[in-house]
Amino acid sequence: MKPKSIAFLLSLIVVVMVQQAEVAGQDLQQMLEDQMETSTGYVTATFKATRILNGHSIERMPEGQLDFRISHRFGRINGGAYEFFGLDQANIHLSLEYGVMDWLMVGLGRGTFEKTVDGFVKISPLRQSAGKNSFPVSISWMSGAYINGLRWSDPELEYHFKHRMEYAHQLMIARKFGPRFSLQLTPSYLHRNLVETAADPNDLFAIGAGSRLKITSRISLNAEYFYVFTPDPSTLSQPIYDPLSFGVDIETGGHVFQLIFTNSVGMRENGFLGQTTGQWLEGDIHFGFNISRVFQLKKQ
Amino acid sequence: MKSKKLAIPWMMMLAIYTLPGCVWQNEEELFPEAGICDTTSVTFSNDIVPILANNCYGCHSNLNAPSFGGGLSFEDHEDVAGYSDRIIGAINHNEGFLPMPQGGSKLDPCSINLIEVWAGSGAPDN
Protein backbone atom coordinates (compact mmCIF):
# COMPACT_ATOMS: atom_id res chain seq x y z
CA MET A 1 0.00 0.00 0.00
CA LYS A 2 1.23 3.44 -0.95
CA PRO A 3 1.98 5.95 1.79
CA LYS A 4 -0.75 8.27 0.44
CA SER A 5 -3.32 5.52 0.74
CA ILE A 6 -2.18 4.76 4.30
CA ALA A 7 -2.55 8.45 5.23
CA PHE A 8 -6.02 8.56 3.68
CA LEU A 9 -7.07 5.43 5.55
CA LEU A 10 -5.77 6.78 8.87
CA SER A 11 -7.56 10.10 8.29
CA LEU A 12 -10.77 8.24 7.57
CA ILE A 13 -10.43 6.22 10.78
CA VAL A 14 -9.82 9.40 12.81
CA VAL A 15 -12.85 11.15 11.29
CA VAL A 16 -15.06 8.15 11.97
CA MET A 17 -13.79 7.90 15.58
CA VAL A 18 -14.45 11.59 16.21
CA GLN A 19 -17.93 11.26 14.77
CA GLN A 20 -18.56 8.19 16.92
CA ALA A 21 -17.27 10.02 19.99
CA GLU A 22 -19.61 12.94 19.29
CA VAL A 23 -22.54 10.59 18.87
CA ALA A 24 -21.55 8.75 22.06
CA GLY A 25 -21.25 12.09 23.90
CA GLN A 26 -24.68 13.15 22.73
CA ASP A 27 -26.04 9.78 23.79
CA LEU A 28 -24.45 10.13 27.23
CA GLN A 29 -25.86 13.63 27.61
CA GLN A 30 -29.27 12.38 26.53
CA MET A 31 -29.00 9.42 28.93
CA LEU A 32 -28.12 11.73 31.84
CA GLU A 33 -31.01 14.04 31.01
CA ASP A 34 -33.35 11.07 30.71
CA GLN A 35 -32.12 9.76 34.05
CA MET A 36 -32.63 13.16 35.69
CA GLU A 37 -36.17 13.16 34.38
CA THR A 38 -36.90 9.70 35.69
CA SER A 39 -35.08 9.79 39.07
CA THR A 40 -34.76 12.16 42.05
CA GLY A 41 -31.45 13.25 43.61
CA TYR A 42 -31.68 14.34 47.25
CA VAL A 43 -29.40 17.05 48.57
CA THR A 44 -27.21 15.85 51.43
CA ALA A 45 -25.11 17.58 54.11
CA THR A 46 -27.00 20.86 54.16
CA PHE A 47 -25.44 21.17 57.60
CA LYS A 48 -22.68 19.07 59.12
CA ALA A 49 -24.47 18.22 62.36
CA THR A 50 -27.96 18.07 63.82
CA ARG A 51 -27.29 21.48 65.42
CA ILE A 52 -26.24 24.63 63.59
CA LEU A 53 -24.70 25.92 66.83
CA ASN A 54 -27.22 26.12 69.68
CA GLY A 55 -30.34 25.41 67.68
CA HIS A 56 -31.42 22.40 65.65
CA SER A 57 -30.60 22.12 61.97
CA ILE A 58 -32.81 20.28 59.47
CA GLU A 59 -30.38 17.35 59.67
CA ARG A 60 -31.21 14.23 61.65
CA MET A 61 -29.45 10.97 62.48
CA PRO A 62 -29.81 8.32 59.77
CA GLU A 63 -31.69 5.18 60.74
CA GLY A 64 -29.86 3.05 63.30
CA GLN A 65 -27.26 5.66 64.29
CA LEU A 66 -26.82 6.95 67.84
CA ASP A 67 -25.31 10.36 68.43
CA PHE A 68 -23.69 10.97 71.82
CA ARG A 69 -23.39 14.73 72.21
CA ILE A 70 -21.35 16.57 74.83
CA SER A 71 -21.82 20.32 74.93
CA HIS A 72 -20.00 22.89 77.06
CA ARG A 73 -20.53 26.59 77.55
CA PHE A 74 -18.00 28.33 79.73
CA GLY A 75 -18.42 31.51 81.76
CA ARG A 76 -18.31 35.00 80.33
CA ILE A 77 -15.13 36.08 78.57
CA ASN A 78 -15.35 39.48 80.29
CA GLY A 79 -14.72 37.70 83.62
CA GLY A 80 -11.07 38.51 82.90
CA ALA A 81 -7.84 36.67 83.60
CA TYR A 82 -8.84 35.82 87.20
CA GLU A 83 -11.73 33.71 85.88
CA PHE A 84 -9.47 32.49 83.03
CA PHE A 85 -11.82 34.36 80.66
CA GLY A 86 -14.75 32.20 81.73
CA LEU A 87 -13.04 28.82 81.53
CA ASP A 88 -13.18 28.44 85.33
CA GLN A 89 -16.95 27.96 85.04
CA ALA A 90 -18.46 25.27 82.90
CA ASN A 91 -22.00 24.37 81.98
CA ILE A 92 -22.43 20.98 80.43
CA HIS A 93 -25.18 19.23 78.53
CA LEU A 94 -25.12 15.53 77.68
CA SER A 95 -27.53 13.90 75.27
CA LEU A 96 -28.21 10.70 73.39
CA GLU A 97 -29.96 11.14 70.06
CA TYR A 98 -31.07 8.27 67.85
CA GLY A 99 -32.28 7.92 64.28
CA VAL A 100 -35.34 5.68 64.46
CA MET A 101 -36.03 6.06 60.75
CA ASP A 102 -34.22 8.14 58.18
CA TRP A 103 -36.85 10.85 58.64
CA LEU A 104 -37.36 10.53 62.39
CA MET A 105 -35.04 11.03 65.36
CA VAL A 106 -35.54 11.23 69.11
CA GLY A 107 -33.27 12.55 71.84
CA LEU A 108 -32.91 12.68 75.61
CA GLY A 109 -30.54 14.89 77.56
CA ARG A 110 -29.56 16.41 80.87
CA GLY A 111 -27.88 19.77 81.39
CA THR A 112 -26.36 21.85 84.16
CA PHE A 113 -28.42 24.90 83.17
CA GLU A 114 -31.33 24.82 85.64
CA LYS A 115 -30.55 21.08 86.02
CA THR A 116 -32.71 20.55 82.96
CA VAL A 117 -33.85 17.17 81.68
CA ASP A 118 -35.03 17.41 78.08
CA GLY A 119 -36.47 15.25 75.34
CA PHE A 120 -37.33 15.93 71.73
CA VAL A 121 -38.74 14.40 68.58
CA LYS A 122 -37.63 15.64 65.17
CA ILE A 123 -39.20 14.70 61.85
CA SER A 124 -37.99 15.55 58.37
CA PRO A 125 -40.91 15.14 55.97
CA LEU A 126 -39.44 16.97 52.95
CA ARG A 127 -35.93 17.11 51.54
CA GLN A 128 -34.39 19.42 48.98
CA SER A 129 -34.05 17.51 45.72
CA ALA A 130 -33.41 17.79 41.99
CA GLY A 131 -34.60 15.68 39.10
CA LYS A 132 -38.00 14.13 38.65
CA ASN A 133 -39.50 15.26 41.98
CA SER A 134 -37.47 18.38 42.57
CA PHE A 135 -38.13 20.43 45.71
CA PRO A 136 -36.38 23.69 46.57
CA VAL A 137 -35.95 23.32 50.35
CA SER A 138 -35.62 20.78 53.17
CA ILE A 139 -38.17 20.97 55.95
CA SER A 140 -37.97 19.54 59.48
CA TRP A 141 -40.08 19.93 62.59
CA MET A 142 -38.87 19.65 66.18
CA SER A 143 -40.97 19.38 69.34
CA GLY A 144 -39.17 19.41 72.67
CA ALA A 145 -40.04 19.35 76.37
CA TYR A 146 -37.83 20.63 79.18
CA ILE A 147 -38.08 19.85 82.89
CA ASN A 148 -36.51 22.34 85.29
CA GLY A 149 -34.77 20.22 87.94
CA LEU A 150 -33.88 22.99 90.41
CA ARG A 151 -35.24 22.85 93.95
CA TRP A 152 -38.06 25.31 94.54
CA SER A 153 -36.88 28.54 96.08
CA ASP A 154 -39.61 28.29 98.74
CA PRO A 155 -40.56 24.63 99.32
CA GLU A 156 -43.50 25.68 101.51
CA LEU A 157 -45.39 27.05 98.51
CA GLU A 158 -47.65 24.68 96.61
CA TYR A 159 -45.71 24.02 93.44
CA HIS A 160 -46.66 21.15 91.11
CA PHE A 161 -44.67 19.14 88.61
CA LYS A 162 -46.38 20.98 85.75
CA HIS A 163 -44.70 24.17 86.95
CA ARG A 164 -41.36 22.69 85.94
CA MET A 165 -42.38 22.19 82.31
CA GLU A 166 -41.45 24.20 79.24
CA TYR A 167 -42.12 23.26 75.62
CA ALA A 168 -40.64 24.34 72.30
CA HIS A 169 -41.75 23.75 68.74
CA GLN A 170 -39.70 24.71 65.72
CA LEU A 171 -40.22 24.58 61.98
CA MET A 172 -36.94 24.43 60.07
CA ILE A 173 -36.75 25.42 56.41
CA ALA A 174 -33.32 25.14 54.81
CA ARG A 175 -31.76 25.35 51.39
CA LYS A 176 -28.29 24.40 50.24
CA PHE A 177 -27.17 26.97 47.66
CA GLY A 178 -24.43 25.05 45.89
CA PRO A 179 -21.71 22.95 47.54
CA ARG A 180 -20.50 25.63 49.98
CA PHE A 181 -23.39 27.65 51.38
CA SER A 182 -26.53 26.65 53.27
CA LEU A 183 -29.17 28.83 54.90
CA GLN A 184 -31.95 27.94 57.34
CA LEU A 185 -34.94 29.84 58.70
CA THR A 186 -36.41 28.64 62.00
CA PRO A 187 -39.75 30.02 63.20
CA SER A 188 -39.94 29.00 66.86
CA TYR A 189 -42.44 28.90 69.71
CA LEU A 190 -41.55 28.47 73.38
CA HIS A 191 -44.15 27.91 76.08
CA ARG A 192 -43.32 28.22 79.78
CA ASN A 193 -45.91 26.90 82.19
CA LEU A 194 -44.73 29.11 85.05
CA VAL A 195 -42.99 32.46 84.87
CA GLU A 196 -41.97 34.79 87.64
CA THR A 197 -44.22 37.82 87.21
CA ALA A 198 -47.38 38.76 85.33
CA ALA A 199 -45.22 40.91 83.02
CA ASP A 200 -43.19 37.89 81.87
CA PRO A 201 -44.83 36.20 78.87
CA ASN A 202 -45.64 32.49 79.14
CA ASP A 203 -45.42 32.25 75.35
CA LEU A 204 -42.45 33.46 73.37
CA PHE A 205 -42.17 33.56 69.60
CA ALA A 206 -38.91 33.86 67.71
CA ILE A 207 -37.59 33.68 64.19
CA GLY A 208 -34.16 32.19 63.73
CA ALA A 209 -31.68 32.30 60.87
CA GLY A 210 -28.66 30.05 60.59
CA SER A 211 -26.04 29.57 57.91
CA ARG A 212 -23.10 27.38 57.03
CA LEU A 213 -20.19 28.34 54.82
CA LYS A 214 -18.00 25.39 53.86
CA ILE A 215 -14.31 26.31 53.80
CA THR A 216 -12.73 22.88 53.20
CA SER A 217 -14.13 19.36 53.09
CA ARG A 218 -13.74 19.18 56.89
CA ILE A 219 -14.16 22.77 58.11
CA SER A 220 -17.06 25.17 57.88
CA LEU A 221 -18.03 28.49 59.43
CA ASN A 222 -21.47 28.76 61.01
CA ALA A 223 -23.57 31.64 62.29
CA GLU A 224 -26.93 31.64 64.04
CA TYR A 225 -29.29 34.35 65.25
CA PHE A 226 -32.74 34.29 66.82
CA TYR A 227 -34.92 37.37 66.95
CA VAL A 228 -37.11 36.90 70.02
CA PHE A 229 -40.40 38.82 70.02
CA THR A 230 -40.52 40.11 73.59
CA PRO A 231 -42.34 42.98 75.22
CA ASP A 232 -40.32 45.91 76.51
CA PRO A 233 -37.32 44.23 78.24
CA SER A 234 -37.39 46.79 81.04
CA THR A 235 -40.81 45.45 82.17
CA LEU A 236 -39.60 41.85 82.48
CA SER A 237 -38.35 40.39 85.75
CA GLN A 238 -35.15 39.65 83.85
CA PRO A 239 -34.32 41.18 80.44
CA ILE A 240 -34.08 38.73 77.55
CA TYR A 241 -31.70 39.40 74.67
CA ASP A 242 -31.51 37.81 71.24
CA PRO A 243 -29.08 34.88 71.08
CA LEU A 244 -26.33 35.38 68.51
CA SER A 245 -23.67 32.73 67.91
CA PHE A 246 -20.69 32.18 65.65
CA GLY A 247 -18.74 28.98 65.31
CA VAL A 248 -16.59 26.56 63.39
CA ASP A 249 -17.47 22.96 62.50
CA ILE A 250 -14.52 20.60 62.35
CA GLU A 251 -15.10 17.04 61.19
CA THR A 252 -12.59 14.36 62.12
CA GLY A 253 -13.97 10.99 61.03
CA GLY A 254 -16.88 9.98 63.26
CA HIS A 255 -16.57 13.13 65.39
CA VAL A 256 -17.86 16.60 64.70
CA PHE A 257 -16.40 19.39 66.85
CA GLN A 258 -18.24 22.66 66.94
CA LEU A 259 -16.35 25.55 68.52
CA ILE A 260 -18.74 28.31 69.52
CA PHE A 261 -18.86 31.90 70.68
CA THR A 262 -22.30 32.89 71.94
CA ASN A 263 -24.05 35.28 74.32
CA SER A 264 -26.23 32.44 75.63
CA VAL A 265 -25.28 29.97 78.31
CA GLY A 266 -28.40 27.85 77.72
CA MET A 267 -27.87 25.09 75.19
CA ARG A 268 -31.50 24.09 74.68
CA GLU A 269 -34.40 26.10 73.30
CA ASN A 270 -35.82 26.97 76.73
CA GLY A 271 -32.44 28.39 77.72
CA PHE A 272 -31.28 30.31 74.66
CA LEU A 273 -34.72 31.57 73.58
CA GLY A 274 -36.10 32.33 77.02
CA GLN A 275 -33.10 33.17 79.20
CA THR A 276 -30.30 34.77 77.22
CA THR A 277 -29.15 37.51 79.55
CA GLY A 278 -25.77 38.29 77.97
CA GLN A 279 -25.05 41.06 75.49
CA TRP A 280 -22.32 40.85 72.87
CA LEU A 281 -21.52 44.56 73.08
CA GLU A 282 -21.00 44.26 76.86
CA GLY A 283 -18.55 41.39 76.36
CA ASP A 284 -20.95 38.82 77.83
CA ILE A 285 -19.65 36.19 75.43
CA HIS A 286 -19.35 32.51 76.28
CA PHE A 287 -16.87 30.24 74.57
CA GLY A 288 -18.09 26.66 74.20
CA PHE A 289 -18.09 23.55 72.11
CA ASN A 290 -20.27 20.67 71.01
CA ILE A 291 -18.72 17.27 70.46
CA SER A 292 -20.69 14.72 68.53
CA ARG A 293 -19.71 11.03 68.42
CA VAL A 294 -21.80 8.78 66.24
CA PHE A 295 -22.22 5.05 66.85
CA GLN A 296 -23.69 2.70 64.26
CA LEU A 297 -26.09 0.53 66.28
CA LYS A 298 -27.76 -1.21 63.38
CA LYS A 299 -26.04 -2.95 60.48
CA GLN A 300 -26.51 -1.05 57.24
CA MET B 1 -41.95 -4.39 62.99
CA LYS B 2 -42.32 -0.85 61.66
CA SER B 3 -45.12 -0.05 64.10
CA LYS B 4 -43.00 -1.35 67.00
CA LYS B 5 -40.12 0.84 65.88
CA LEU B 6 -42.33 3.89 65.85
CA ALA B 7 -43.90 3.18 69.24
CA ILE B 8 -41.21 4.97 71.28
CA PRO B 9 -41.21 8.24 69.29
CA TRP B 10 -45.01 8.31 69.25
CA MET B 11 -45.08 7.77 73.01
CA MET B 12 -42.51 10.54 73.49
CA MET B 13 -44.56 12.84 71.27
CA LEU B 14 -47.70 12.00 73.22
CA ALA B 15 -45.88 12.61 76.52
CA ILE B 16 -44.50 15.93 75.30
CA TYR B 17 -47.92 17.17 74.26
CA THR B 18 -50.20 15.76 76.90
CA LEU B 19 -48.80 14.43 80.18
CA PRO B 20 -48.03 17.46 82.31
CA GLY B 21 -50.30 19.73 80.28
CA CYS B 22 -50.00 23.36 79.40
CA VAL B 23 -50.85 26.07 81.89
CA TRP B 24 -50.30 29.80 81.72
CA GLN B 25 -49.34 30.86 85.25
CA ASN B 26 -46.99 33.23 87.03
CA GLU B 27 -45.68 33.10 90.58
CA GLU B 28 -46.75 36.67 91.34
CA GLU B 29 -50.44 35.80 90.95
CA LEU B 30 -50.21 32.13 91.94
CA PHE B 31 -48.57 32.82 95.30
CA PRO B 32 -49.53 36.35 96.30
CA GLU B 33 -48.58 35.52 99.88
CA ALA B 34 -45.00 34.92 98.74
CA GLY B 35 -44.88 38.52 97.55
CA ILE B 36 -44.95 39.59 101.18
CA CYS B 37 -41.33 39.27 102.15
CA ASP B 38 -40.95 39.33 105.93
CA THR B 39 -37.63 40.99 106.69
CA THR B 40 -38.42 42.07 110.22
CA SER B 41 -36.33 39.47 112.04
CA VAL B 42 -33.85 37.97 109.59
CA THR B 43 -31.49 35.41 111.10
CA PHE B 44 -28.47 33.65 109.61
CA SER B 45 -29.58 30.16 110.66
CA ASN B 46 -33.29 30.40 109.79
CA ASP B 47 -33.24 32.62 106.70
CA ILE B 48 -29.81 32.79 105.08
CA VAL B 49 -28.54 29.20 105.45
CA PRO B 50 -31.62 27.65 103.71
CA ILE B 51 -31.15 30.03 100.75
CA LEU B 52 -27.46 29.13 100.53
CA ALA B 53 -28.18 25.40 100.90
CA ASN B 54 -30.79 25.46 98.13
CA ASN B 55 -28.84 27.55 95.68
CA CYS B 56 -25.13 27.65 96.47
CA TYR B 57 -23.85 24.54 98.23
CA GLY B 58 -23.77 22.60 94.94
CA CYS B 59 -20.45 24.42 94.40
CA HIS B 60 -19.79 26.48 97.56
CA SER B 61 -19.75 23.74 100.21
CA ASN B 62 -16.61 22.68 102.09
CA LEU B 63 -16.47 19.56 99.90
CA ASN B 64 -17.06 21.19 96.51
CA ALA B 65 -15.50 24.63 96.92
CA PRO B 66 -11.92 23.66 95.95
CA SER B 67 -13.06 22.09 92.65
CA PHE B 68 -16.14 24.00 91.61
CA GLY B 69 -16.55 27.01 93.90
CA GLY B 70 -13.36 28.97 93.24
CA GLY B 71 -12.20 28.00 96.76
CA LEU B 72 -15.12 29.84 98.38
CA SER B 73 -17.14 27.81 100.88
CA PHE B 74 -20.23 29.36 102.47
CA GLU B 75 -20.95 26.78 105.12
CA ASP B 76 -19.40 28.84 107.93
CA HIS B 77 -20.84 32.13 109.11
CA GLU B 78 -17.56 34.06 109.01
CA ASP B 79 -16.99 33.13 105.34
CA VAL B 80 -20.45 34.30 104.30
CA ALA B 81 -20.13 37.48 106.33
CA GLY B 82 -16.67 38.19 104.90
CA TYR B 83 -17.84 37.81 101.32
CA SER B 84 -21.29 39.37 101.74
CA ASP B 85 -20.51 42.31 99.39
CA ARG B 86 -19.36 39.95 96.63
CA ILE B 87 -22.36 37.68 97.23
CA ILE B 88 -24.80 40.59 96.93
CA GLY B 89 -23.11 41.80 93.72
CA ALA B 90 -23.18 38.29 92.24
CA ILE B 91 -26.80 37.45 93.07
CA ASN B 92 -27.96 40.82 91.72
CA HIS B 93 -25.96 40.17 88.54
CA ASN B 94 -24.26 43.55 88.99
CA GLU B 95 -21.60 44.66 86.54
CA GLY B 96 -18.14 43.49 87.55
CA PHE B 97 -19.45 40.45 89.43
CA LEU B 98 -19.80 36.89 88.24
CA PRO B 99 -23.57 36.32 87.92
CA MET B 100 -24.80 33.70 90.40
CA PRO B 101 -26.20 31.09 90.72
CA GLN B 102 -24.11 29.98 87.81
CA GLY B 103 -26.16 28.22 85.15
CA GLY B 104 -29.45 29.24 86.68
CA SER B 105 -31.80 32.17 86.72
CA LYS B 106 -31.57 34.94 89.31
CA LEU B 107 -32.71 34.18 92.86
CA ASP B 108 -36.25 35.24 93.70
CA PRO B 109 -36.49 38.89 94.88
CA CYS B 110 -37.36 37.88 98.47
CA SER B 111 -34.23 35.74 98.86
CA ILE B 112 -32.07 38.58 97.54
CA ASN B 113 -33.86 41.00 99.85
CA LEU B 114 -33.29 38.75 102.90
CA ILE B 115 -29.55 38.48 102.19
CA GLU B 116 -29.27 42.24 101.68
CA VAL B 117 -31.14 43.00 104.89
CA TRP B 118 -29.04 40.50 106.86
CA ALA B 119 -25.77 41.88 105.44
CA GLY B 120 -26.98 45.45 105.97
CA SER B 121 -27.58 44.78 109.65
CA GLY B 122 -23.94 43.76 110.12
CA ALA B 123 -24.21 40.11 109.04
CA PRO B 124 -24.81 38.77 112.57
CA ASP B 125 -24.27 35.11 113.54
CA ASN B 126 -27.77 34.56 114.91
How do the helices and strands line up, and which of them pair or pack?
The complex is a heterodimer of chains A (about 300) and B (about 130).
Chain A: H1 3-38, E1 40-42, E2 65-76, E3 90-101, E4 104-111, E5 117-126, E6 129-131, E7 138-147, E8 165-177, E9 181-192, E10 194-195, E11 203-214, E12 219-229, E13 244-251, E14 255-262, H2 269-274, E15 286-296
Antiparallel strand pairs in A: 1-6, 2-3, 2-15, 3-4, 4-5, 5-7, 7-8, 8-9, 9-11, 11-12, 12-13, 13-14, 14-15
Chain B: H1 2-18, E1 25-26, H2 27-30, H3 44-55, H4 65-68, H5 77-82, H6 84-91, H7 109-120
Helix pairs in contact in B: 3-7, 6-7
Describe what this molecule looks like in 3D.
The complex is a heterodimer of chains A (300) and B (126). By secondary structure, chain A is mostly beta strands. Helix content of chain A is 14%, strand content 45%. Chain A folds into 2 domains: 38 residues; 255 residues, monomeric porin ompg (Porin, Beta Barrel), CATH 2.40.160.40. Chain B is extended, with a radius of gyration of 20 Å. Chain B is built from 7 helices and 1 strand, in the order αβαααααα. In chain B, helix 3 crosses helix 7 and helix 6 runs antiparallel to helix 7. Chain B has one domain. Chain B is mainly α. Chains A and B meet through strand 3, strand 5, strand 7 and strand 10 of A and helix 1, strand 1, helix 2 and helix 3 of B. Strand 10 of chain A pairs parallel with strand 1 of chain B, so a sheet runs across the interface.
